[in-house]
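Module 6 notes. Inverse folding takes a fixed backbone as the condition and produces residue identities as the prediction. Think of it as a translation problem where the source language is geometry and the target language is the twenty amino acids. Below is one complete input and output pair. Work through it position by position during the lab.
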């Protein structure tokens, strides 16, 4: 079964840091053969608060998605956002 990274941002306080993070994170996604399904874009909040950004990445398996998240490449990227973005990050097994 496929694995999905679902990341819903609550706030972003530094767009430059987000861009720096995105470049490094993209390299990690590619290394672990992930495919971006959603990367920002227009959105409508039908319930709850509107998120400034949502990202969904598909991986070949749940384990592959977890390996991506735990990888040195992704953790190096992730460290760039500390103090500049608040988000909910989940790895979910798909149908």
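Target side of the pair, the amino acids:
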């Amino acid at each position: 079964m496929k694995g999905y990274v679902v990341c819903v941002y609550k706030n972003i306080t530094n767009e430059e840091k987000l861009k720096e993070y995105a470049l490094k994170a993209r390299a990690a996604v590619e290394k672990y053969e992930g495919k971006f399904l959603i990367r920002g874009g227009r959105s409508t909040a039908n319930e709850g608060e509107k998120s400034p950004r949502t990202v969904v990445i598909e991986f070949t398996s749940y384990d592959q998605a977890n390996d991506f998240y735990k990888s040195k490449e992704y953790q190096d990227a992730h460290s760039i956002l500390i103090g500049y973005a608040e988000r909910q990050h989940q790895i979910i097994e798909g149908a």
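Reference fact for the lab report: The beta strands are 3-12, 35-39, 54-59, 85-93.
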